[in-house]
Amino acid sequence: MKSYITHLECTYCGATFSCDEIHNTCAKCGKVLYARYDLVAARKEFKKDDLLRRPGNMWRWFEIMPVRDPANVVTLGEGHTPLLPALRLGKPYGANQIFFKEEGLNPTGSFKARGMSAAVSKAKELGVKAIGAPSAGNAASALSAYGARAGMQINVFMPTDAPEMMKKESFMFGANVYLVRGLINDAGAIVRAASPSRGWFDVSTLKEPYRQEGKKTMGLELAEHFNWELPDAILYPTGGGTGIVGMWKAFDELEQLGWIGSKRPKMIVVQAEGCMPIVKAWREGKRHAELFPNAQTIAAGLRVPVAIGDYLMMDALKASGGTAISVTDDEIRLAMSEVARSEGIFASPEGAATWAAYKLLMAQNFLKPEEKVVLFNCGSLLKNAELIDVSGLPVLDPKDPDLLAKIK
Ligand SMILES: *Cc1c(COP(=O)(O)O)cnc(C)c1O
Ligand SMILES: [Zn+2]
């Protein structure tokens, strides 16, 4: 196996940089860098059949992944997750083409595993010994796991009110865990301030070029699942936006490989009403989003008030005929229970938000019942146990003479 990576390219000003030295954002304009590949050469050598002979993780796409030496891959078996048809939820809408991409089955229970496997692997290849990152929670636990696997020193910074399990995971994986009185952007400022003097590589979302290479594999897998014919719409719970821009990049690369045509799904950003910078900018027709004030939602992964990749998301929404939509925390809670009861899928609040958004978009006629739609359950609800209230459950006393009368 050989990677066809050639260089890094700025998505904003077009400047190019070496992919064999450490870079964060563009040294000329400060915007997002993308890994680029020699897809003309890859097209001749890399065949769909090659995938079938490889292990079931995201590194089976090695030719269009950024690591040069397979020995540097740091894997815990991430990716290659199931695409589960919804069996009941679509019925009231006459829709039988709804699918859940079940990302909760990833190592550390969220799709952050993909991005961090890619970022940590490339960092290892470039000789990085210590990494710092801000996180709303899941990125910290994923980075901590891959850091442990790679034998690197990991430093994570998350809000004091991040979900408990994500703090515990990071702690158990041996990372230095700091809780910040503030949001992910406040944590990001601390990482930027501390990194230079401590020699940390900063892997903040879209502020290094490789996390989105891991996330793009979600798009590659969808193409393969649907036999190289992309679905009609993708609903994606959006925080920093790595996934949405990563998948968009994946589709472009697959077309250049000659594996898919020019059809693209409508890319749909789903955010929470309490933190919807991208939805707001989309409604106002702007390419850049402003910092969203007082961000608050039960969906921690969506509590990202400012995103460096805003313009990349806007471009994908526009080019795909997609949209951006927000849902309330109450709608998310209802959706969580509907998805769990109807489908047996333990969806995180972020994942459930896509089902809440689907219902709204059907009501608005933006989506049609016959359309093939993918909802991303980006993480497992196992990580948000505090959102589930079981205090009202009946308690039985085995010696109670009326015991059986108390059972339905
Ligand atoms: C990080 C995260 C998101 C947001 O993903 P981005 O690609 O950063 O937009 C959504 N849901 C969960 C569970 C997450 O951990
Ligand atoms: Zn630039």
Description:
This protein is α/β, with parallel strands linked by helices and 408 residues long. It has helices spanning 39-45, 48-52, 112-125, 138-150, 164-172, 184-198, 211-225, 242-257, 277-283, 310-320, 329-343, 349-363; strands at residues 5-10, 16-17, 33-37, 83-85, 98-102, 130-134, 153-159, 176-180, 201-202, 233-237, 266-272, 323-327, 373-377. A six-stranded mixed sheet has the order 4-5-13-10-11-12, sandwiched between helices. A four-stranded parallel sheet has the order 8-7-6-9, sandwiched between helices. Helix 3 packs parallel to helix 4 (138-150), helix 7 crosses helix 8 (242-257) and helix 11 packs across helix 12. The termini are far apart. Residues 110, 112, 138, 205, 237-243, 301, 348, 350, 378-379 line the site of pyridoxal-5'-phosphate.
